[in-house]
Amino acid sequence: MPTTIQSLKTCKEAGEKFTCLTSYDATFSHIVGSAGVEVILVGDSLGMVLQGHDSTLPVTMDHMIYHTEAVKRGNQGALIMADMPFMSYATPEQALENAALLMQAGAHMVKIEGGDWLCETIRMLSERGIPVCAHLGLTPQSVNKLGGYKVQGRESSQADEIIAHAIAQERAGADIILLECVPSSLATRLTKNISAPVIGIGAGSGTDGQVLVIHDLLGITPGRRPKFVKNFMEESGSIDGAIKAYVDAVKSGDFPADEHSFN
Ligand code: KIV
Ligand code: NA
């Protein structure tokens, strides 16, 4: 059965964890979906892991369309979420035009980064049949405003703000919230406060789903490994085995452990 927004909501209501992984091409899309991953993210992280940039800012709509088309061709029933790249949703009108291109390329939903300033855009996309995931916490397209890739929402006023953004976004029509690099307590509280499924990365084990960049899971990303990443290749020895180990670990609650989380 293909994954849908509705099936993810059913998962949340039943208290069952689900998984998400990035893929950027048809082969990985096929492997990832076949291993039981529910959501495939065509992430603008491709600017870093495929293109070698030090941020996601250089990624264009043409890049995202190209990779979304490839992922669609290999898809085995996962829900395909495509990132809208930097400045492709600066206004609601731009967002509508660019989100339509990603949906026509094969995405089932789009992801945009930011707080409640996105509500008008979310409402506009959602009313026109485009499901939206709102990405909160560490938003990599704003790395120059944030002053680096840092944990967000450590102060209680900031934590309250992030939760308020998510509530407003759900009210505007957001179907999924993605939380990156926030304290586990904040992610758990947010997840309980909204009915839309919440996907976490570096957000502890209290969210409804988890996401990782596939290169990180396979341990092939050069440089320092972030705290929230686990190399599943070490214990599995094959790509397929590593992805299945990730799926099992998320479903059983073994991943993320405290050592992968922020407090
Ligand atoms: O682009 C990406 O891979 C992402 C995840 C890190 C959530 O946005
Ligand atoms: Na992204």
Automatic annotation (TrEMBL):
Single GO MF descriptor: 3-methyl-2-oxobutanoate hydroxymethyltransferase activity
Catalytic activity line of the entry: (6R)-5,10-methylene-5,6,7,8-tetrahydrofolate + 3-methyl-2-oxobutanoate + H2O = 2-dehydropantoate + (6S)-5,6,7,8-tetrahydrofolate
Superkingdom in the source lineage: Bacteria
Keyword Nucleotide-binding attributed: no
EC code(s) of this entry: 2.1.2.11
Entries under Gene3D superfamilies matching the protein: Phosphoenolpyruvate-binding domains
Cellular localization per UniProt: Cytoplasm
Record: residues binding Mg(2+): D44, D83, E113
Active site: E180 (proton acceptor)
Annotated cofactor note: Binds 1 Mg(2+) ion per subunit.
Primary residence: cytoplasm
Residues annotated as binding 3-methyl-2-oxobutanoate: D44, S45, D83, K111
Associated pathway: Cofactor biosynthesis; (R)-pantothenate biosynthesis; (R)-pantoate from 3-methyl-2-oxobutanoate: step 1/2
Keywords, comma-separated and alphabetical: Cytoplasm, Magnesium, Metal-binding, Pantothenate biosynthesis, Transferase
Family of this protein: Belongs to the PanB family.
Alphabetical list of NCBIfam families matching this protein: panB, PRK00311.1
Name recorded for this polypeptide: 3-methyl-2-oxobutanoate hydroxymethyltransferase
Species whose genome carries this gene: Alkalimarinus alittae
Gene from which this protein is expressed: panB
